[in-house]
């Protein structure tokens, strides 16, 4: 890919800074409730997906930090295992959804599923902490999406209490907008490319080249 995404990534980094500021604001107001700290890796086992802009940003920063070597290989091996686990889970839940199982039950099961992030090292620290996704950055404070609130069970926030809550829907809308900007910038022939969501493991494994992005003429098979 030859398109320069520096400006779009800079916009993403500004959104990251806003998310960090939100986290710090809540922590300053409820320091006794926010229990995030060195060695706590509960959020590193949560199953969630990244939109195009976060996936490509993480992929690029990972390539810059781990160009070659044993550590890169180890992370990619963990990513492959985590991705296969996630695929099996999603396939099973999809089949169960076809049987008429309640969607709320399925989402609750996904929330309970624990898949270790491939970036989490043996010492329980993140290999890409400075460039971790926004979901990771906001995990330890009250959030809400689709009107449903969520709080990490390891925090001191009491169920049913009134606390400052981050509306993730608004953040996701802005992320979706940045993903669409990438689609336009690369002039992809895949009109729904910006609607593709992948777990961290797949974001690390994927080669975001012209073929994946749908850039340039279609190669004819010989």
Give a short overview.
The protein is mostly helical. It is 50% helix and 5% strand. This is YkgJ family cysteine cluster protein.
Describe this structure in words.
The strands form 2 sheets. This protein has a 3-stranded mixed β-sheet with strand order 3-2-4. A two-stranded antiparallel ribbon has the order 1-5. Strand 2 (143-145) and strand 3 (148-150) form a beta hairpin. It is mainly alpha-helical. The chain is 50% helix and 5% strand. The chain has one domain (6-213). The model has no long low-confidence stretch (mean pLDDT 91). The longest helix is centred in the middle third of the chain and has 29 residues, at 70-98. Helix 1 (6-29) runs antiparallel to helix 6 (168-186). It comes from Nitratidesulfovibrio liaohensis. This is YkgJ family cysteine cluster protein.
Structural class: mainly alpha
Strand order of the largest sheet: 3-2-4
Instruction: Please tell me the overall pLDDT.
Output: 91
Distance between the termini: 24 Å
Number of domains: 1
The major sheet is characterized as:
3 strands, mixed
What labels would you give this structure?
222 residues, YkgJ family cysteine cluster protein
Topology:
Layout lengths: L5 H24 L19 E2 L1 H14 L4 H29 L4 H10 L21 H5 L4 E3 L2 E3 L15 E2 H19 L11 E2 H6 L4 H4 L9
Parallel strand pairs: 2-4
Antiparallel strand pairs: 1-5, 2-3
């Amino acid at each position: 890919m030859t398109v320069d995404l520096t400006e779009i990534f800079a916009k993403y980094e500004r959104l990251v800074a806003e998310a960090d500021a939100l986290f710090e604001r809540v922590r300053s107001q409820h320091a006794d409730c926010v229990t995030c700290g060195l060695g706590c890796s509960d959020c590193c086992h949560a199953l969630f997906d990244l939109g195009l802009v976060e996936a490509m940003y993480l992929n690029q920063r990972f390539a810059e930090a781990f160009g070659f070597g044993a550590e890169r290989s180890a992370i990619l091996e963990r990513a492959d295992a985590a991705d296969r686990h996630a695929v099996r889970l999603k396939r099973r839940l999809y089949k169960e959804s076809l049987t008429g199982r309640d969607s709320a039950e399925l989402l609750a099961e996904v929330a309970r599923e624990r898949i270790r992030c491939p970036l989490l090292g043996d010492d329980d620290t993140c290999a890409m902490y400075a460039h971790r996704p926004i979901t990771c950055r906001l995990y330890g404070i009250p959030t809400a999406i689709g009107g449903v609130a969520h709080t990490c069970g390891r925090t001191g926030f009491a169920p049913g209490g009134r606390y400052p809550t981050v509306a993730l829907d608004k953040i996701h809308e802005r992320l979706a907008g940045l993903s669409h900007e990438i689609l336009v910038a690369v002039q992809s022939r895949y009109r729904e490319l910006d609607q593709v969501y992948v777990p961290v493991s797949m974001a690390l494994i994927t080669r975001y080249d012209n073929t994946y992005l749908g850039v340039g003429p279609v190669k004819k098979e010989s």
